[in-house]
Every structure is written in structure tokens, then in C-alpha cells.
């Protein structure tokens, strides 16, 4: 109860500071008050455009994230099982990993053009590396005793990967998915700022040109909120799936 | 019958020194009996388990199980480790199901080890003793020729350990498996063994072999009887004189 009260006090305090800041700086364009933000919220949500922008961004994130999850987890399991493939693939991944997704945007536009495909590609790159790296870390952490038990019972190939390697790595996979989801959101906004005609990144970019700071902040708030909800949904799935850890 | 013939094995320690563990080592384990190896810590008991299991390759010699040369790990020799070797993400039943499709056998061994009421539980919900029973049930369900137990009771309290000793003997008499148990607990060795092999420090030599004359139907009360105490003292004396 005390905690909830404290949180309410903090939120009310922040809203108050936000409300009075425009009076100090004498400019509602730089620091829109909570009231003007509320108006922006009501105005935008009474038109269909904002829903289209949210859906566009969501679609790009989910498609790119889904492909990254499949590739990231499968590749990590594969090179964890077949060490020799790992010797070839790992150096390439280590070179590509530090390159920020935003640096890939020009290449993505050149290859896929201005459209959803380049955004999927950028989101894929953003989400792939954390998912791959965490899964791979899980795979190489498999204790020797489990490998020995599997060898004694002749559990090999697909059965080993599916029943032992995958399940042991699942907590690590979920960590990768949560980090990957955050990266996917960052990447999609970056991609939409440059090479898209819809989405929350595009919404922010258009309102920047129109000097509508209230709409920009609304866009930022929506990005944060949707990102938070998506990460939360992965955490909920994690609790439901990892029954042996609870 | 398990034969270890002219086994040679060594490894390099942290100080880059070569440590010879086995130098032309020979051992015969008879079928249908519980053979127990006792020896000082670090003498090479676990190395022997790993060699029999096929986890490590020896420099020389051969291991023959039922007239077949052992080359790699296999279902004919199941190892029960001192660490927890149960798959934590699988329920008791799923742990069994992973190693066999024979559901009748799964039910049989879960009942034999008194785990059938816990078949939907995860290992974290089981006690240390129950986990060991599950390891044993999982080993028995694949019907191996040979079960090797590497200090399986080392992490358990005395009460659980003694209960498990009785259960192991009961299960062994019903399943008629050949068991090789490695321990440094002399009392455990005397209570469980049909044959006791005493190991020296490395390079390992069998410095004593004792045929246990105690009756096969053993209960905890036997631990205080003079025959039991005498065998314990005999082992202690051999170890003291040679190690």
C-alpha cells in the first residue's frame, strides 16, 4: 500500500513538473504540457491514422522478430551440436554483431527498396544477434553430465537437440527473446524514420517536420508502451513455459 | 562378465606433470553380483567409471563386456553419477519416457522405486533420495547388462543413505543386475557388496579382494554385528598398510 502511494506521488509530481515547465521556458513547442499531450492523444486516437501507424510498426516488428527468433535459435542449436559448423560460422557472426542495425539501412534500401521488406530486414538484424548470442550461450553451458547421460542412453541427433539441448537452453532463449524484442522496436523505428511511408517512426518523422512536439512525444510514448507490453507478454509466456524453474 | 585387460591411462595435471592412473591394470567383475570398489580419494575410482562408461578413451588395453569390446558409451552400461544427473526440465515420467518407449516397463520400475505417485512431478519437487531412486529407475528401465554407480549416495544424509542402501539391495535382488559401485565409505561397501575390491593410490592396483560372507538378506541391524565390523576392520587395515 505504501509502495502504491509512493508511486502515485511520483507520477503526480512528474505531471506537475511537466505542466509548469512550459511557463519557465515560455514555449509550449519544446515542452508541451500534460494537457496539450492529452489533447494530442484524444485527437490522434479519434482518427484512423494512428491505428494504421501502430499496426504497420507492429507488423514489421512481429515479422522481423519471428524470422530472427527462428533463425537465431536454430542456428545456435545447430552450431552448438555440430561444433565444426560453429568454427566456420562464429567468426562471421562476431564480425557482423557489432554493426548497429541502423548502419544496414542504406544497404537494405538498395537491396529491398523502400518498403516493408527493408524494415523486416532491419528488424531481423536487430533481434537476431541477442537471440542467437543468448541461445548459443545456453547451448555451450550444457553441463557435461547431461552430455554423458545422453551418450549412455544413446540419445543422439534430433532427439538430443529437441529434448536436451533446446530445453536446457530455454531460459537463455527467453532472455534473448526479451532483449531481441527491445532491439526489434529500436530497429523498426530507425528503419521507419528513414525508409517507410507508415509506422510510428514515420509518424514521429512527419510530426518533426510539422514541429508538432506533442505528437512526437505521443509517438514516443506509444513506442515505449507497446514495447513494454510485448516484452511483458514474453515474460508471461516464459513463466508459463519454464514450469521446472518456478 | 566385465573384463578390464591391461588398462593404461594417464593425464597431465595443472603443474604439467604426467600422472599415471592405470598401468597395465586388470580387473574382472563377475556377473549378477554387486561389486564394490573402495579406495582413497583421488586414486582413480571415478576415472575407472569413466573408462567403463566409454566417456574417456584409454591409452592402452581393452574393456570387454559379455565378450564384446567396449568402444563408446552405450545402453548396455548405465552410469549413476554422484552429481544429480536427472533432466530437470522433464517430469519423472518424461525422464523415463526419454530413454525408452516401453510404458509397461516405465510403470514397473516407477513402482519398484516407489516413484509412481510422483510421475508428474518435476525433479525440483523431489528429495535428494528420490532423485537417486529416479536415476536408478531410469537405469533399470533400459535393461542394461551392467549398472555402474559412482559414489551415488555421497551427498545424502545418513538416514536417507541407509534407507537407499536397503532399497538398492531389494531392487537388486529383484532385477538380478550386475552392479559396480564405487565408494570411499567402507561401511557402505560392506553393507552392499558381494565382492569388495580395494584400490591403492595411483598407479592403481587391487591391494585386496574380499568375498563378502554376510547373508544376502541384510537389514540395518547387521551393521553392529561382529562379522560386519570385522570386514570393515579388515578393509581399514589393508588401506592403512598400503596407502
Strand content range of chain B: 25-35%
Note the main sheet of chain A: none
- The low-confidence parts of chain B are none
Number of strands of chain B: 10
DSSP helix fraction of chain B: 25-40%
N/C terminus separation of chain B: 28 Å
Strand order of the largest sheet of chain B: 6-7-8-3-9-10
Reported by name, the CATH topology of chain A is MetI-like fold
Structural class of chain A: mainly alpha
How confident is the prediction overall: mean pLDDT of chain B?
A: 89
Runs of chain A in which pLDDT lies below 50 for 5 or more consecutive residues are: none
Q: What's the CATH architecture of chain A?
A: Orthogonal Bundle
CATH architecture of chain B: 3-Layer(aba) Sandwich
Shape of chain B: globular
CATH C-level name of chain B: Alpha Beta
Total DSSP E strands of chain A: 0
Q: Give the CATH superfamily of chain A.
A: MetI-like
- Please state the overall shape of chain A, judged from the principal axes of the Cα atoms: globular
